[in-house]
Amino acid sequence: MNAAYVIAGASLAGAKAAETLREEGFGGPLVLIGEETERPYERPPLSKDYLLGKAERETIYVHPQPWYAEHDVDLRLGARVTGIDPAAHEVRLADGSRIGYARLLLATGSSPRRLPIPGAEADGVLYLRRVADSDQIKAAFQTASRVAVIGAGWIGLETAAAARAAGVEVTILEAAELPLLRVLGREVAQVFADLHRDHGVDLRFGVQVAEITGSGGQADGVRLADGSHVRADAVIVGIGITPNSQLAEAAGLEVGNGIVTDARLRSSDPDIYATGDVANAYHPGLGRHIRVEHWANALHQPQAAARAMLGQNAVYDRVPYFYTDQYDLGMEYAGYVEPGGYDQVVFRGDVGRRVFIAFWLGGGRVLAGMNVNLWNVNEVIQAIVRSGRTVDPGRLADPDVPLEEFG
Ligand SMILES: Cc1cc2nc3c(=O)[nH]c(=O)nc-3n(C[C@H](O)[C@H](O)[C@H](O)COP(=O)(O)OP(=O)(O)OC[C@H]3O[C@@H](n4cnc5c(N)ncnc54)[C@H](O)[C@@H]3O)c2cc1C
Ligand SMILES: NC(=O)c1ccc[n+]([C@@H]2O[C@H](COP(=O)([O-])OP(=O)(O)OC[C@H]3O[C@@H](n4cnc5c(N)ncnc54)[C@H](O)[C@@H]3O)[C@@H](O)[C@H]2O)c1
After folding, report:
1. Which end of the chain is more exposed for a tag (fewer CB within 10 A), N or C?
2. Which residues are paired to 344 by β-bridges?
């Protein structure tokens, strides 16, 4: 049988899996296949310091260029996996070649949802997933006086902040009543709405976008379903992603909101694993499957997947974590709450000054916590979430009670 370990998808998750396989002593052939022409890089800077012009391109990469040859990783860039043959233990590539595998890891990530309205294919309608997209948006900020941003999720808010830093007028068009509403709930979503209003963003909630207007193939604004029109020199779209699970589905693997795996990241085929944005993995701490679309998951989960591929007893059960930076607000969030799946939000600190911790409580326990402009507390928050103990909300809100008491 072929001894190669093959990884489809050469971004953060794929590169971290390759690194762990070598660290753990895997000495066989290791092939890392990516359809992008760049070597693996991290995406968070693309909407933050790289977009703001504060970070050089060289800083975004997961490994220095020589690392792949030095670790005997056969990195194939500009190569798309087009099919998996589980019976033959082979992947097919777009150029018609086939690569055999003993174990296969799918780290194919996710792709932006496209806007399904007339005019959406015009020039000046911009998405943000790849480094070239970030370059294009940065260039647009140099010439545009005003941009419209469709979607007040992570992409929408972070690019809006970067646009304001570049002196561009911004209108955000969001279908829901508040930004980040499904993730944060009303109480904390309001903090982000206030933040952007304070920085001069025109926020429009509960709107339906009907058409991208323009002339000569160039976008010049957005028409809303109520007939009103928002003028814009460029339109940035951030309306969510879909997991790239088509290969797995075509190969007959179990798929549902991504590739379904157990806690060891193994799919319904015993020799195929999945990790990162594309994996809907069983989380033992939460007692359910979750698919996490965040950097920390793509950093840590592949390490567990790689160990499991080598037959080690590795289970991924870290508390989900993400962060954002917008204007002068930096935050970290740890935990997991289903949309609307909490009873109460407890604030500790000064929400008006945006220096506080928010805790989401359900059944008396802390489900998640978010530290805003306060540092070195997220590990304690993770311990509190992990402990599953019931807490007294009054004491939790009291900054004089040490947080360690709740963990
Ligand atoms: C602009 C931006 C900013 C972000 N900022 C943050 C942040 O601040 N904090 C945070 O927690 N998270 C952030 N995220 C989310 C985080 O970047 C993702 O969760 C992470 O990139 C997921 O990594 P991944 O390797 O699983 O998938 P991806 O990064 O999507 O990579 C998958 C790779 O596989 C390749 N691929 C797909 N199909 C095939 C195929 N058939 N053959 C070959 N290659 C294939 C893709 O081209 C891609 O290169 C951000 C995302 C974006 C886009
Ligand atoms: N700091 C971070 O963690 C960070 C930063 C950037 C990107 N990301 C990741 O990148 C991915 C893409 O981010 P995103 O912001 O596109 O997705 P998202 O899911 O965070 O937000 C999408 C937003 O678009 C809105 N929306 C959907 N359809 C709409 C429509 N037709 N009109 C108006 N609004 C609409 C939704 O209500 C939601 O608020 C996600 O996986 C996200 O986690 C994360």
Report:
1. N
2. 361
Question: For tokens 């949802």, what's the residue?
Answer: 113
Element of type H or E holding 238 = none
Residue 231's alpha-carbon distances to 118, 201, 207, 212, 288, in angstroms, are 16, 14, 15, 10, 45
Token pair 């740890």 in the structure block, residue: 334
Q: pTM of the entire structure? A: 0.98
User: What is the per-residue pLDDT across 15-53, written as a single tens digit (0 to 9) for each?
Assistant: 999 999 999 999 999 999 999 999 999 999 999 999 999
Separation of CA 179 and ligand 2 centre (Å): 9
- pLDDT value at position 1? 55
59 in helix, strand or coil? helix
Answer for the pair 396, 348: CB distance below 8 angstroms, yes or no: yes
Check residue 124 and give its pLDDT: 98
Segment 279-290 shows an average pLDDT of: 97
3-class DSSP assignment, residue 359 = strand
Q: Which residues line ligand 2 (CB under 6 A)?
A: 47, 150-156, 158, 173-176, 209, 238-241, 293-294, 322, 324
Pocket of ligand 1 (CB under 6 A): 8-14, 33-36, 43-44, 46-47, 80-81, 107-110, 128-129, 155, 244, 247, 276-277, 293-296, 298, 322-324
In this predicted structure, what is the pLDDT of residue 308?
A: 98
What distance in Å separates the CA atoms of residue 182 and residue 175, rounded to the nearest whole number? 12
**Best probe residue, ligand 2, of 154, 235, 329 (max atoms within 8 Å of C-beta):** 154
Computed from CA positions of residues 83, 86, 87, 88, in that sequence, does the dihedral angle turn out positive or negative?
Answer: positive
